[in-house]
Write a structure and sequence with these properties.
The structure holds 2 protein chains of 2 kinds. Chain A is mainly α. In chain A, 72% of the residues lie in helices and 2% in strands. The mean pLDDT of chain A is 85. The two termini of chain B are 39 Å apart. Classes of the chains: A mainly alpha, B alpha+beta. Chain A binds chain B through residues 184, 186-187, 189-197, 200, 204-205, 208-209, 292-293, and chain B through 50-52, 71-73, 77-79, 81-83, 85-89, 98-99, 102-103, 130-132, 146, 150.
């Protein structure tokens, strides 16, 4: 027996979901439709006229080596962000799970970075690593390492990865900790009696039982790295040096708003739209029927 | 196989002492049941033997060797948990093989031992299943199987039957006892169910508030309880406690008398009088509940064929002197 309110007519329910529908239509469907529409045209530099090119924008994009390079950059970036933020979070969660005293404080402090907006986080890390005034950069200089993420592509990538992962660790930590605490203590004890030492227990019992959480976080973090790291990249590297940190989302902005190539930018948005749709399907498909033991 | 000795074993959490010193020498192959109400420290005691809780004071010896500082895995024990604690992501056979695999047992031997345990516990048809696809009783068997494949010296059971329904509990109780006998392994079994304690134990430890009130064979404990608590806890319905003045003795102490030792006699006869509140005819026997002059409740267990007194009737209560158990005001046996 399902216990839910049922309406007889169609008008009242429609009225109740109308605000949400309106917001979705105005802020999602309309811009998405615009992007699809614009991706089929090349506008003139002043935006006064548009020329129909069909799938020309897409054809051009897919044969553009910079665009393909951006795909690769995005892949490297999102894999690194996901691995770093989830790895560190899992490590911290395992430590926090073992804590008895002061675990509340520890948890609260670890959650704080999540409240920092990506752009602000980017600026914070930029200050630390600024080639001229950055504290960390200065100490690295003392140690004989010449830090310069403005010129060095690897360092630039490293910095945006760290800055993007930092705030994310909090979020992942919370989920991992909740996941760890949901594992019955007696199962761990049984494994201890069965002779499994800490690392063995983690590998064969804890980690497998944590897999629903891990999978959920994997999808969520990839989506994050793909779409929500714009602020970090914009404040730290602006996609540079030499497009080394230009991920797909940043390229939409750079080509469209900086390069004024609105047709190509729109086409890129459409491609991103497809990617996010696939990720969402994957997420729903697997997260909905999560492995229940 | 092994002997287990506990020597003035104490446990404190911070400043609160929860176990106040337990001593027992358990012989090889003996089945010891630790019984007591919830919160008496019986599970804590078991977990100390398992190595899941630290020892605050005293010593635990398995086979004469001090194990206080040893990890659970180095104590040569196996434990069956109340909620079974099966590994949910492993099949039944993987669950049973886990400990052996870690110990580096050769694959063939693992298969052989798991197969043997499965045969013993009638789990053969379920070896490929996951725990969630099993019934409560089957899970219980898997937990037992996991314990026996490792051939430990000591079995520890933490209320293993309390999640099963009444019928299955009786059946599993018999199986556990049989298994332990056949394997000849030393067992420590924690329960709050006195029937389990009576039927399973070679000797039982009756725990009350962190103290082992009495240690002894079930029938000996039943016949000769050392404290008021033990007399009240072991036996169902529980022992009647009657103020000695009401029972026709010099006042100030308590007389304990088991329900089956009291007989209903005509008014004016017997040791004291009571008024019948209600009777519970159970077929083979009848429980008659009465109040005494001072309001104290008393239960009489009589044969089902004996006439049942009507409610509100005033009757005499009689028992023989030798069945009396006298307790002082501290609950100690006099």
């Amino acid at each position: 027996m399902e216990k839910r309110v049922t309406f007889k007519g169609i008008w009242l329910p429609l009225l109740l979901v109308l605000p949400q529908l309106l917001i979705t239509a105005v802020f999602f469907f309309y811009p998405a439709g615009q992007a699809v529409w614009q991706s089929l045209f090349i506008p003139d530099p002043f935006g006064l006229s548009m020329q129909w090119v069909g799938l020309g924008n897409f054809e051009y994009l897919l044969s553009d080596k910079y665009y393909r390079a951006s795909f690769q950059t995005t892949a490297v970036f999102s894999i690194l962000v996901t691995v770093v933020s989830m790895g560190v979070a899992l490590y911290l969660a395992v430590l926090a799970d073992r804590l008895i005293k002061g675990s509340g404080t520890y948890r609260t402090l670890l959650i704080w970075p999540y409240a920092v907006a990506p752009a602000v986080a980017g600026v914070l890390w930029l200050f630390m690593f600024n080639t001229r005034v950055g504290v960390v950069a200065w100490y690295l200089g003392v140690l004989g390492y010449d830090w310069n993420h403005v010129l060095n592509e690897g360092e630039a990538m490293g910095l945006v990865v760290v800055a993007s992962s930092w705030g994310r660790i909090s979020y992942n930590f919370l989920f991992f900790l909740a996941g760890l605490q949901a594992i019955p203590k007696s199962v761990i004890e049984a494994a201890a009696i069965d002779g499994a030492r800490f690392w063995m227990r983690f590998r064969t019992i804890v980690f497998p039982l944590l897999s629903p959480t891990t999978f959920f976080l994997l999808v969520v973090n990839i989506v994050y790295a793909f779409f929500e790291t714009f602020g970090v990249i914009h404040t730290i590297t602006s996609g540079g040096p030499q497009q080394a940190t230009t991920i797909l989302v940043y390229k939409v902005f750079a080509d469209g708003f900086v390069g004024q190539d609105l047709g190509s930018s729109a086409a890129q948005s459409v491609i991103l739209l497809l990617i996010v749709s696939v990720l969402t399907v994957v997420q729903f498909k697997f997260v909905e029927r999560r492995v229940h033991y | 196989m092994a002997t287990v000795s506990l020597e003035s074993l104490k446990k404190s959490y911070g400043k609160t002492e929860v176990i106040h010193g337990v001593d027992i020498d358990i012989e090889d192959g003996e089945f010891i049941v630790i019984v007591g109400p919830s919160g008496c420290g019986k599970s804590t005691l078991l977990r100390m033997v398992a190595g899941l809780e630290g020892v605050s004071e005293g010593e635990i010896r398995i086979n004469g060797q001090r194990v206080n500082e040893k990890e659970p895995m180095d104590r040569d024990i196996a434990m069956v948990f109340q909620n079974y604690a099966l590994y949910p992501h492993m099949s039944v056979s993987q669950n049973m093989a886990y400990g052996l695999k870690i110990a580096g047992t050769p694959k063939l031997e693992i298969e052989e031992r798991v197969g043997e345990a499965a045969r013993l516990l009638q789990l053969e048809p379920y070896l490929k299943r996951r725990p969630r696809e099993l019934s409560g009783g089957q899970r219980q068997r898997v937990a037992m199987g996991r314990a026996i494949v490792r051939r430990p010296s000591v079995f520890l059971f933490d209320e293993p039957l309390s999640n099963l329904d009444a019928k299955l509990r009786v059946q599993m109780r018999l199986e556990i006892k049989k298994l332990q006998r056949d394997l000849g392994v030393t067992a420590l079994y924690v329960t709050h169910d006195q029937v389990e304690a009576m039927t399973l134990a070679d000797r039982m430890i009756v725990m009350n508030d962190g103290v082992a009130d009495q240690i002894g064979a079930p029938l000996e404990v039943y016949a000769n309880p050392q404290t008021e608590f033990v007399a009240g806890f072991i036996g169902s319905p529980p022992t009647n406690f009657i103020e000695s003045g009401v029972a026709g003795k010099s006042p100030g102490t308590k007389v304990g008398i088991r329900p089956e030792h009291v007989a209903i006699v005509p008014t004016g006869q017997g040791n004291t009088t009571g008024r019948v509140i209600y009777a519970e005819p159970l077929g083979a026997e009848t429980l008659v509940h009465l109040t005494l002059g001072d309001g104290q409740l008393v239960t009489v267990r009589q044969d089902g064929s004996v006439e049942i007194p009507s409610e509100g009737q005033e009757v005499g209560l009689s028992w023989s002197e030798q069945d009396e158990m006298r307790f002082d005001t501290d609950g100690r046996r006099l």
